[in-house]
Write a structure and sequence with these properties.
The complex is a heterodimer of chains A (about 220) and B (about 250). Chain A has about 220 residues and is mainly alpha-helical. Chain A has nine helices and no strands. Chain A has helices spanning about 5-15, 15-50, 50-65, 70-85, 90-115, 120-125, 130-160, 175-185, 185-220. In chain A, helix 2 (about 15-50) packs across helix 5 (about 90-115), helix 2 (about 15-50) packs across helix 8 and helix 6 (about 120-125) runs antiparallel to helix 7. Chain B has nine helices and ten strands. Chain B has helices spanning about 45-55, 80-85, 100-110, 115-130, 145-155, 175-190, 200-210, 225-230, 235-245, and strands spanning about 5-15, 20-30, 35-40, 60-65, 70, 85-90, 165, 195-200, 210-215, 220-225. The longest helix of chain B has 16 residues, at about 175-190. Chain B is globular, with a radius of gyration of 18 Å. The chains are: A mainly alpha (about 220), B alpha/beta (about 250). At the A-B interface, helix 6 and helix 7 of A face helix 2, helix 3 and helix 5 of B.
């Protein structure tokens, strides 16, 4: 049997298992990125606040995330949350990924908020809008538009990083590939298969982000 | 002569940025329906004075009285004061993510709590007034500078302010677009709007201004009716300034 035909058999034969892994990767990525976005927005606002202690909290969080490997963060949160708080493994994985992406998203949002011309804030304030209203109605909508390309990129990184939850035993896409590989002692075809799944997901996400960018560019 | 209401009164106003003393003991009064034009070289403090009047800059000392109320940052809701004192900026500062009408109705809805329907009705009236009745639904990026500034004026007017502040409203415009903005401002002045205008347009100051205030180095050097100040300046500084620009 030719290697190509053998790969085809493995690819098709493992489809159902990978589909389950894909579903876990999908749920994990969506949940963790949504939570990371909320964390990121919150931390970004702490960072641009004029209150030293809040800035310090944000800096400490970003320092911890950037200063430790993601896999270490996932293990600490996994053992911490599942042993002490008895939280299910899935949500421990979500927490680990969200904790990590949140810091990068915070930096993206902070950067775009600060890139908005200060005249926008002054225009809002001069019309009698409160600072919160100005942030919510004037600054953030523009900052988010500007953040779309970087956020899209960060979401792609987040999806690929979600493969690290296989180290705590989750059967996501990568988890399926490594178990299948070690069950059959035939690693290469399963890792190539899983690479194809990731490429496919990232391709779809890239197309969506491009579409959003184009749409936003039209209204500018 | 009947007593005209004082809209703005400034007493011994001082403002510094760090070590830089930008406004030095400024005294100024703006009465209802007055058009006061602030002139002077760049860096003389005229824009800072204007920005102090709606509290975009907070004074270091002195008092600012708006409609007979002494306004302090600590005791007053500055947002309420800013509703009464509209501002037009040199660089327009329109909201690029909102349509022209969206720009105009934003604050009436958010701040005054008008219904969208009511705000749109009034907003359209304001835009018609500044000659942009055909531009309700376009985005600011499609407009010329002069049109943008007229939207900005309509946006400020939509809050129904008692006083309008203009911070070099034509300085960022191509020369051929200056006229349309000045014409809109002149119309407002004729209607009796109280205005404080920072500008380099001496023709406008002479024609529309009731009072001209010449500032130099953070101080008011001379105040007078346009004909007096431009034709018979009393101070050497004023004479030097006028001969440098005319």
């Amino acid at each position: 049997m030719s290697p190509l035909l053998e790969f085809y058999d493995i690819f098709v034969g493992s489809f159902d298992l990978f589909l389950e892994g894909l579903w876990i990767t999908f749920k994990l990525s969506i949940a963790s990125l949504l939570i990371a976005f909320v964390i990121g927005l919150f931390i970004a606002i702490l960072k641009i606040s004029n209150i030293k202690i809040l800035q310090w909290i944000a800096d400490a969080y970003i320092w911890i995330v950037r200063g430790t490997p993601l896999v270490v963060q996932i293990f600490i949160l996994f053992y911490g949350l599942t042993d002490i708080f008895l939280i299910p493994m899935f949500w421990a994985g979500v927490a680990g990924l969200a904790f990590h992406s949140g810091a990068y998203i915070a930096e993206i949002i902070r950067g775009t908020i600060q890139s908005i011309d200060k005249g926008q804030r002054e225009a809002g304030r001069s019309l009698g809008m409160t600072s919160g209203m100005t942030m919510r109605r004037i600054i953030l909508p523009q900052a988010f538009r500007r953040a779309v390309p970087s956020l899209g990129n960060q979401f792609i990184i987040g999806i690929k990083d979600s493969s690290l939850v296989s180290f705590i035993g989750m059967q996501d896409l990568f988890g399926v590939a490594s178990s299948m590989g070690s069950n059959t002692f035939n690693y290469l075809p399963y890792f190539i298969t899983v690479a194809i799944y990731y490429l496919f997901i990232v391709l779809i996400l890239t197309l969506i982000v491009n579409k959003i960018e184009k749409k936003l560019a039209q209204s500018d | 002569m009947s007593e005209v209401r004082e809209m703005i009164r400034v007493d011994k106003l001082n403002k510094s940025f760090g070590d830089l003393h930008v406004l030095k003991d400024i005294d100024m009064t703006v009465k209802e329906s007055d058009v006061v034009v602030l002139v002077g070289a760049s860096g003389s403090g005229k824009s800072t004075l204007l920005r102090c009047l709606n509290f975009l800059e907070i004074k270091n000392s002195g008092t600012i009285t708006i409609e007979s109320e002494k306004v302090e940052k600590e005791t007053h809701n500055l947002n309420k004061i800013r509703e009464k004192v509209g501002m037009v900026f040199q660089h327009f500062n329109l909201f690029p993510h909102k349509t022209v009408l969206g720009n105009v109705i934003e604050a009436p809805i958010q701040v005054k709590g008008l219904s969208r329907q009511q705000a749109e009705k009034e907003g359209k009236e304001m835009l018609d007034k500044v000659g942009l009745g055909d531009k309700y639904n376009v985005y600011p990026s499609t407009l010329s500078g002069g049109q943008k500034q007229r939207v900005a004026i309509a946006r400020a007017l939509a809050m129904k302010p008692d006083v309008m502040l203009f911070d070099e409203p034509t300085s960022a415009l191509d020369p051929e677009l200056v006229g349309e903005v000045l014409a809109t401002m002149k119309e407002l002045a004729v209607e009796g709007m109280t205005m404080v205008v920072v500008t380099h347009e001496m023709g406008f100051a002479r024609e529309v201004g009731d009072w001209v205030v010449y500032m130099h180095d953070g101080k008011i050097v001379e105040t007078g009716k346009p004909s007096d100040l431009f034709d018979h300046p009393q101070e050497e500084r004023t004479k030097a300034f006028l001969s440098s620009i005319l």
